[in-house]
Amino acid sequence: METKHLTETEITLCAEALATDSAARTVCDASKLHLKNCEICTKQVNSISEIIRQKYNEEIVIGLNRVKKPKRTFFAWLGISISLILLFILGVFLMSGFSNIS
After folding, report:
1. pLDDT at res. 99
2. DSSP one-letter code for 69
3. In whole angstroms, what is the distance from residue 81 CA to residue 88 CA?
4. Are 47 and 14 in contact (CB under 8 A)?
5. How far apart are CA 101 and CA 54, in angstroms?
6. Cα 82 vs. chain centroid, distance in angstroms?
7. Who contacts 25 (Cβ-Cβ below 8 Å, separation ≥6)?
8. Measured at the alpha carbon of residue 100, what is the angle toward residues 99 and 102, in degrees to the nearest 5?
9. Eight-class DSSP state of 27
10. Residue 35: Cβ-neighbour burial (10 angstroms; 0-12, 13-18, 19+)
Protein backbone atom coordinates (compact mmCIF):
# COMPACT_ATOMS: atom_id res chain seq x y z
CA MET A 1 0.00 0.00 0.00
CA GLU A 2 1.41 3.38 -1.03
CA THR A 3 1.33 6.25 1.45
CA LYS A 4 -0.49 9.35 0.22
CA HIS A 5 1.67 12.33 1.10
CA LEU A 6 0.53 15.89 1.66
CA THR A 7 0.21 18.08 -1.42
CA GLU A 8 2.59 20.98 -1.99
CA THR A 9 -0.15 23.38 -0.91
CA GLU A 10 -0.78 21.44 2.30
CA ILE A 11 2.95 21.33 3.05
CA THR A 12 3.25 25.08 2.44
CA LEU A 13 0.26 25.85 4.65
CA CYS A 14 1.65 23.66 7.44
CA ALA A 15 5.08 25.28 7.11
CA GLU A 16 3.61 28.79 7.26
CA ALA A 17 1.56 27.83 10.31
CA LEU A 18 4.63 26.33 11.99
CA ALA A 19 6.77 29.37 11.14
CA THR A 20 4.21 31.74 12.64
CA ASP A 21 3.55 29.56 15.69
CA SER A 22 -0.09 29.10 14.73
CA ALA A 23 0.09 25.44 13.74
CA ALA A 24 -2.03 24.26 16.66
CA ARG A 25 -4.91 26.48 15.55
CA THR A 26 -4.68 26.48 11.76
CA VAL A 27 -3.45 23.06 10.62
CA CYS A 28 -6.24 20.55 10.10
CA ASP A 29 -6.27 17.37 12.16
CA ALA A 30 -5.72 15.13 9.10
CA SER A 31 -2.50 17.00 8.24
CA LYS A 32 -1.33 16.86 11.86
CA LEU A 33 -1.94 13.10 11.98
CA HIS A 34 -0.13 12.60 8.67
CA LEU A 35 2.86 14.68 9.83
CA LYS A 36 3.00 12.69 13.04
CA ASN A 37 3.45 9.48 11.04
CA CYS A 38 5.31 10.63 7.90
CA GLU A 39 8.96 11.57 8.20
CA ILE A 40 9.23 12.72 4.57
CA CYS A 41 6.46 15.32 4.83
CA THR A 42 7.63 16.40 8.29
CA LYS A 43 11.12 17.11 6.93
CA GLN A 44 9.67 19.13 4.05
CA VAL A 45 7.45 21.14 6.39
CA ASN A 46 10.33 21.82 8.79
CA SER A 47 12.67 22.82 5.96
CA ILE A 48 10.20 25.26 4.41
CA SER A 49 9.26 26.58 7.84
CA GLU A 50 12.90 27.46 8.55
CA ILE A 51 13.15 29.31 5.23
CA ILE A 52 10.00 31.28 6.02
CA ARG A 53 11.25 32.17 9.51
CA GLN A 54 14.61 33.30 8.15
CA LYS A 55 12.91 35.45 5.50
CA TYR A 56 10.58 36.92 8.12
CA ASN A 57 13.50 37.75 10.44
CA GLU A 58 15.40 39.41 7.58
CA GLU A 59 12.36 41.53 6.72
CA ILE A 60 12.08 42.64 10.35
CA VAL A 61 15.73 43.72 10.37
CA ILE A 62 15.31 45.59 7.09
CA GLY A 63 12.19 47.29 8.43
CA LEU A 64 13.93 48.32 11.64
CA ASN A 65 16.85 49.75 9.70
CA ARG A 66 14.48 51.86 7.61
CA VAL A 67 12.99 53.57 10.64
CA LYS A 68 14.39 57.08 10.69
CA LYS A 69 16.04 58.16 13.87
CA PRO A 70 14.80 61.44 15.26
CA LYS A 71 16.96 64.38 14.31
CA ARG A 72 18.46 66.22 17.19
CA THR A 73 19.66 69.17 15.13
CA PHE A 74 16.62 71.23 16.10
CA PHE A 75 17.60 71.09 19.78
CA ALA A 76 21.23 71.83 18.96
CA TRP A 77 20.26 74.96 17.00
CA LEU A 78 17.82 75.96 19.73
CA GLY A 79 20.60 75.74 22.32
CA ILE A 80 22.98 77.77 20.17
CA SER A 81 20.30 80.41 19.54
CA ILE A 82 19.49 80.75 23.23
CA SER A 83 23.19 81.05 24.04
CA LEU A 84 23.65 83.82 21.48
CA ILE A 85 20.61 85.72 22.76
CA LEU A 86 21.89 85.47 26.33
CA LEU A 87 25.34 86.69 25.24
CA PHE A 88 23.73 89.64 23.46
CA ILE A 89 21.67 90.55 26.54
CA LEU A 90 24.75 90.24 28.75
CA GLY A 91 26.72 92.44 26.33
CA VAL A 92 24.00 95.11 26.32
CA PHE A 93 23.82 94.98 30.10
CA LEU A 94 27.59 95.30 30.48
CA MET A 95 27.81 98.13 27.94
CA SER A 96 25.06 100.09 29.69
CA GLY A 97 26.86 99.53 33.02
CA PHE A 98 30.14 100.86 31.61
CA SER A 99 28.46 103.92 30.06
CA ASN A 100 26.98 104.86 33.46
CA ILE A 101 30.45 104.75 35.06
CA SER A 102 31.95 107.36 32.70
Report:
1. 66
2. P
3. 11
4. no
5. 78
6. 38
7. 17
8. 70
9. S
10. buried
CA distance 67 to 35: 40
Query: How far is residue 53 from each of residues 16, 18, 21, 99, 101, measured CA to CA in Å?
Result: 9, 9, 10, 77, 79
User: What's the length of the chain?
Assistant: 102
Residue 100: the pLDDT is 62
**CB burial of residue 70 (10 Å; 0-12, 13-18, 19+):** exposed
pLDDT in tens, 36-71: 999 999 999 999 999 988 888 887 777 767 766 666
Residue 92 per-residue DSSP state:
H
- 3 state DSSP class of 94: helix
